[in-house]
Specification:
The chain is mainly alpha-helical and 78 residues long. Helices cover 72% and strands 5% of the residues.
Length: 78
């Protein structure tokens, strides 16, 4: 059975490769939530943050698609 080896020589778990894109999407959503909260505290309108929301939405969709590609690729390897 082959195992994936990371750059530092340690074995990389298959689960970590699938979880990393989801964690990245959650981190991006947390950053947007904090920015939105800060924006509201400063009495600014949320509509001016629309480009940020669109960018994060594309990022999250890309991370979900990346997770699917990694899952498919890992099934081929293992």
């Amino acid at each position: 059975m082959m195992s994936a080896i990371s750059h530092n020589g340690l074995p990389q778990s298959r689960m970590m490769g699938e979880v990393t894109p989801i964690l990245a999407a959650l981190l991006a959503l947390a950053a947007v939530a904090f920015t939105s909260w800060f924006w509201l505290v400063e009495d600014q309108g949320l509509l001016s943050l629309a480009p940020l929301y669109v960018a994060v939405a594309f990022f999250c969709v890309d991370m979900v698609l990346l997770r699917r590609r990694l899952r498919t690729k890992s099934k081929e390897i293992y």
